[in-house]
Amino acid sequence: MTRLITQKLRGWIDNFLKRTYNHFLCYLPVNIGFFSSWILKLFFSGVKLDKEQTSVIRKIPKESIIVYTTKHKSYFKYLFYHTRYRQEGLPVPEIGLDYRVLIWQPVSRVFRIILAHLDYFFYNKAWPPNPYKSGYIKHELIKGRSGLLFLVEKKGFYRRFVKEKADPIRYLIEIQKSIERPIFIVPQLMFFSTNPHRSTPSIIDILFGTEERPGKIRRIVILFKKPGNIFVEISEPVNLKEFLELTENRYQSLEQQSLQLRRYLLVQINQHRRSIVGPILKSREELKENVLTNNRLQKFMYNHSKKRNIPIQKVHKEADMYLDEIAANYNIAVIRMATVVVKWVVNTMFEGVTVNNDVLNRVKNMSKKGPLILVPCHKSHIDYLILSYILYNNNMPCPHIAAGKNLSFWPLGPLFRCGGAFFIRRTFRGAVLYSKVFAEYVNKLLEEGFNIEMFIEGGRSRTGKLIMPKLGLLSILLNAYKNESCEDMIFVPIFIGYDRVLEESAYLNEIEGGQKEPESLLQVIKAGRLLKKRYGRIYIKFHEPMSLKELLSEYGSKIQDMSSKEQNVFIRNLGHRIINAIDNVSLVTPYALVASAILNCPKKSFTYDYLISEMEIYMTYLFSKNAKMADTLVLDQARAFEKALEHYTHRKFIEKIPKKDKKSQSSEVIFKVNESKRPVLEYYKNNCISFFIPAAFTALAILEKDAFQFSTSDIVSGYTFLQEFFKNEFSYDVDKTPDYFVRKNIKIFIDDAILMPHSTLPDTYNLTSAGYRKLKFFSSFLKPYFESYFVVLNFFMRYPKEFINTKDRLKKVQSMGNRMYKRKEIERKEALSKINFQNAINYFVSHGVKSSDNHDKIKLYDDTIKKYMSHLPE
Q1: Do 833 and 679 touch, CB atoms closer than 8 A?
Q2: Global pTM?
Q3: Tens of pLDDT along 603-632?
Q4: CA-to-CA distance for 488 and 659, rounded, in angstroms?
């Protein structure tokens, strides 16, 4: 009887244990019960997990084994991933490597685990082998379950190397070597705040844990008080099979491979975390101390003292003053407050912000490889505010911003410093020590891992188009890289555009020769009036990030091996590459396109239909180039044009003149340009001019041949001249030849029936009668620039060398331009641009035209300009 009972009990135990002792607390099943699931769902409901992040997991091949990993052991995170991934339909981490989950287990599982351990002990006088030795974890992972492991624990080294406990990393490598299916290790990061870590922890950090690893109390407080602050990021999965096949890992021992993999994963997680919160934040005083006491600067100050016979204490004092003048005072509390203000300003003054978030996410990923050098175009003071706001809202650290010293005025200067601004003088001329201190400060920022924002144009564009690159700060950055301040440097060209710019009237005043007003508190007070106006949309487009390391690799030379001349060439090419990249991601707005059509119209007055026909020519060309356009243009082109036209009419840039047709008794609206407002329209026209310059050069080169039949070779020389002649106005792609642009535009012109290929002669084309009119529309973009250069040439033609004072030269050129405009020797008021005049002066002086003494060269340029102008619309 006893034996029968024993047999039945044995059978029941075997059935209940499913004939295995492999029952462990490291396994938490997907279905843990309705009540437990409901509580955990509610508990974690406020934590953010974006689809962009989960898409990283969804892209992993289905046959793969997935093991998630975190930096530190955390049951809070384990339960979150287990709960939320089930909701999202993702592989759920059921196997917790070195985790023991008890209270959330189904009751039946808890009994089964207890019974398995007691039964095993009863028969074997020892506890069952752990899930590693028993092969349980390997079996479950191969069966298709997902796992979760952590990389760092308090006594991890002691546990693995002294006690010789199982190392999960090594265990996974052993599994991978025994199977063909790949194991993907997916790093997971949970953020409770985007605040950067400080070098000196606060009392709260000591008592309740840091923001990276909050204690239980702090974690619960954040979860219930500000659940929206908690979000999850998923880093790039590591294919363990591919990792082990890498040359540097293939022939290492199992121990070395596990150490290398752990190190690799930790570096990746730390870099990803830094891309969100930024580097450890040191105090301004600590950074100053590090800069002023570094060996390079100390050696320089010592030599500077000896060379100039200045006491070293005085040099030190001067360097300290310079650093006070330069350094930022990064303060996350001020940044948080500023985002609230910027959001309010944007919502009050603008209709919204358009951002290409897909590229921004790639920028964010690239920031793990090195500090970002953010290089936006500069059209308004809003630029640096809106860019930092966008980065902050996308869980990226606000950059340190190279700002002009003119913005350091009270009270905004101290606030800008707290927002990350460090101040730079317009020129370093004669300030040798200042230059060195500034360079060392930039070195230190990069060394610490801070992102830097710089305006490569040097200042805000007053003309609406990009200014040629200023290379001073770019050179400092390249020297910092040469000094090994960072492993890589990621350049991010950025387009920031506006339907309407705030500083419009100030720019117009400066273009026409007025003096720039210095920034001051009074200007800030006056700016309050702007809040009552609406300025359309803001457009922010990020270009694909460019790795400096990869650019140097393509260049074929290490920066350390470059001569000074070679480095200057590389920097100049990089500057133009960045400007071109900004142009390539620029956006065409309806306001820019309508302004172009109005100003390029050859008639003094025009109908709505005529303007639309002109804009359709431009739109056809833009579509052929796959140019990026504002959503309003893409969704409803006609309405976008009408709205822009209404805007310009309302602001009296153009005027309506009703005209009655006596025969039909109908009225048609005629538009007329307000001549005094042409320079303002020119600003908006220039917002999109970079798209049309290749077409304008090609069109004018064709028109200049004055023939209806021509070959490509006939046009290339003209295009080359125009590109070189206007090199101070328009940047061009240094990697492409004029022949490339000519052929590309000829193809577009053929598609639009402007040109027709010759039936028998190769590489020869005929100009159609309708095409002749269209070429005139394209070439019109160049007319104001030719007229500006013609004015400057007339100035040099008139004045001998002894009568030209460099300081007064620009004023005299402007005076001459006004006289020529009144005498109708030039037609376009927008040609009376101080900036165009200065660019023309720079061009002619660099090409040997400095006064009337250079008669032969002046005659050559005079004939050339008149020849081209004769083919431009009147």
Answers
A1: yes
A2: 0.85
A3: 778 888 888 889 999 999 999 999 988 888
A4: 65
